[in-house]
């Protein structure tokens, strides 16, 4: 596709999304897919198509986690089109996943210098800063992304800012950012889960449960973590029967996960063991009561029959 003398690469650039945290804050880097990039070479330049080919190959390898091949192809694309901000962004991420963090940071900074509005590159750079615990630098980059009014994924930016504030111990500010993330995208489950963590920590277990419940819908339906923390919240609310059902559900739905192991541990907790004992005792008492009732019912019927027979005999005697 041509636009103002610039050929478009119909491929995807790569950015980092810091994933959902549960009770222990963890920061990891993952990939998400965003828009394509434009060549900075003139349309009539015979070399203008080659960087697009290498860019396409490198991006595909990057998404397949073949980072050596990705780096090789993206280096070639960068050599042919050194003024392309988005090529440098993806190349920076190839370096990062190859373990060359400082090289990745340098490449991402070059990407931003070429295009200060490249929000993908800023998000990636901020994500790396978070892993290095350079939280002030990360916050600076995320806030710069918020200034880009046309950026379509600000729900992630607010969420990532919430993670930064959470890690800094500023729970109220983190909670505020997570709420803004949900306002941008109502069903963004990581933000719901993060709010659930804060509410759980505060002892607001009903609010925590509601947030974890919201976090278990949509794209996160197949995630065991929000389900498990629903169970914990129910347990804290002393709704032990519902908690027991939730932990049993986790064991059934997610049998090979760490959460299934934790759910089994919870089922052996004093609260649930007591409930199980009471339930079994109640069942035993119910069974005894049924048996007693059955015996009594049979006896009553025997008396009734005998009484009828006596009545018949008495009538016959008259």
Describe this structure as you would to a colleague.
The protein has 318 residues and is mainly α. It has a domain at 1-147: Alpha Horseshoe (Serine Threonine Protein Phosphatase 5, Tetratricopeptide repeat), CATH 1.25.40.10. The chain has 14 helices and five strands. The chain has helices at 49-63, 67-80, 85-97, 101-114, 119-131, 135-146, 154-167, 171-184, 189-202, 205-215, 224-236, 240-253, 258-267, 270-317; strands spanning 2-3, 6-9, 14-16, 31-33, 37-38. The strands form two sheets. It has a three-stranded antiparallel beta sheet. Strand 1 and strand 2 (6-9) form a beta hairpin. The longest helix is centred in the last third of the chain and has 48 residues, at 270-317. The N and C termini lie far apart (113 Å). Mean pLDDT is 79; it is low at 1-35 and 296-318.
Oligomer: single chain
- Sheet having the most strands: 3 strands, antiparallel
Determine Rg (CA atoms, Å): 31 Å
Number of helices: 14
Distance between the termini: 113 Å
Strand ordering within the main sheet: 1-2-5
Write a brief caption for the model.
This protein has 318 residues and is mainly alpha-helical. The protein has helices at 49-63, 67-80, 85-97, 101-114, 119-131, 135-146, 154-167, 171-184, 189-202, 205-215, 224-236, 240-253, 258-267, 270-317; strands at 2-3, 6-9, 14-16, 31-33, 37-38.
């Amino acid at each position: 596709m041509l636009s103002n003398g610039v050929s478009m690469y119909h491929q995807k650039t790569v950015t980092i999304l810091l994933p959902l945290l549960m009770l222990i804050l963890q920061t990891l880097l993952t990939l998400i897919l965003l828009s394509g990039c434009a060549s900075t070479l003139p349309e009539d330049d015979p070399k203008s198509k080659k960087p697009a080919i290498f860019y396409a190959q490198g991006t595909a390898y990057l998404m397949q986690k073949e980072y050596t091949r990705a780096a090789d192809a993206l280096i070639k694309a960068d050599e042919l089109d050194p003024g392309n901000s988005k090529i440098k962004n993806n190349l920076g991420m190839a370096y990062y996943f190859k373990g060359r963090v400082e090289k990745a940071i340098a490449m991402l900074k070059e990407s931003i210098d070429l295009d200060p509005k490249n929000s993908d590159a800023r998000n990636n750079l901020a994500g790396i800063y978070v892993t290095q615990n350079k939280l002030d630098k990360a916050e600076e980059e995320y806030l710069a992304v918020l200034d880009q009014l046309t950026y379509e994924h600000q729900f992630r930016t607010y969420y990532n800012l919430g993670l930064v504030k959470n890690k800094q111990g500023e729970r109220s500010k983190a909670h505020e950012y997570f709420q803004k993330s949900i306002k941008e995208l109502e069903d963004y489950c990581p933000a719901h889960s993060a709010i659930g963590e804060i509410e759980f920590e505060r002892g607001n277990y009903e609010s925590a449960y509601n947030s974890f419940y919201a976090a278990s819908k949509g794209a996160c339906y197949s995630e065991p973590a929000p389900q498990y923390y629903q169970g914990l919240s129910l347990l804290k609310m002393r709704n032990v029967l519902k908690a027991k059902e939730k932990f049993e559900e986790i064991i059934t739905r997610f049998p090979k996960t760490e959460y299934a192991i934790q759910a089994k541990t919870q089922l052996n907790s004093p609260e649930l063991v007591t409930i199980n004992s009471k339930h079994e005792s109640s069942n035993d008492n119910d069974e005894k009561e049924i048996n007693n009732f059955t015996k009594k019912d049979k006896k009553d019927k025997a008396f009734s029959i005998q009484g009828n027979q006596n009545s018949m005999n008495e009538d016959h005697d008259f």
